[in-house]
Amino acid sequence: MKKYRLPILMLVIFETVAVTLWLTKDNLFYLFNFSYIGLAISLGVFLFIRKYKYARRIVQLLVGLYMLIYLGLICKENMQIEGFWYYLFTGVFEAATIHYAVAKIFGPLIFGRGWCGYACWTAMVLDFLPYKEPKEPGKKLGWIRYITFVLSLIFVSALFLAGVGNLERIMFWAFVVGNILYYVIGIALAFAFKDNRAFCKYICPITVFLKPMSYFSLIRIKCDKEKCVSCGKCKRVCPMNVDVTDNSRKRQNGTECILCMECVKNCPKNAL
Questions:
Q1: What is the domain partition of the chain in residue ranges?
Q2: Closest of 263, 196, 165, 219 to residue 60, by C-alpha
Q3: Which fold has domain 221-272?
Q4: What is the pLDDT of residues 197-239, one digit of tens each?
């Protein structure tokens, strides 16, 4: 049972969040929402432990499609960063603000950038592209993410300052248009840089929240130096160019790790 501690821990964490929000917000939706996500993630980790090849992909589809289609398109909740600013400015702790608090602001203190590896609906599609292993070191374009972050804030701020009406409808269409742009840009960058995760590394504004918090992540990949033979395979298969052989918090691209476990699966000595 010892090897199943992680999926059990993840389930307990999400069930705690689910029950807490259900009782404090008096809304049964939160019980369903976070229970479903917790079960999906726990299932994926369990399948990974059982060495099922497509464990992470199953979680991506279960969670990503649920959030994109059900929450985004059917329930018309903008779960992108514009939705976060919108709810933040209205002073309401609902929907996107809760989502960001759990998955992208405080959650990364526990599971790092697990959101990017298991739940992001943009990456869900990008990971089906052919460039799973980047052939070149990451480019110094990470500054672009701060521009997209600021632009999203300016966009929502301008709507409030201008007193624009029917903001909920605008937020819905911002979600639709924003996702189309994300997919188009993400796919274009993947083929241009031959790197499926180029969008995540350079453009995605969410990483402005995720990176600093994931630096302190409780769950992280560690290397057993006694087993490691320095073959370099882990670095070659890492989609985020992380040096997982360095156990320090300051390792190269450490806050880029999405816990995809490709390094763990491919290590010939089980050193990770």
A1: 78-214, 221-272
A2: 196
A3: Alpha-Beta Plaits (3.30.70)
A4: 999 999 999 999 999 999 999 999 999 999 999 998 999 999 9
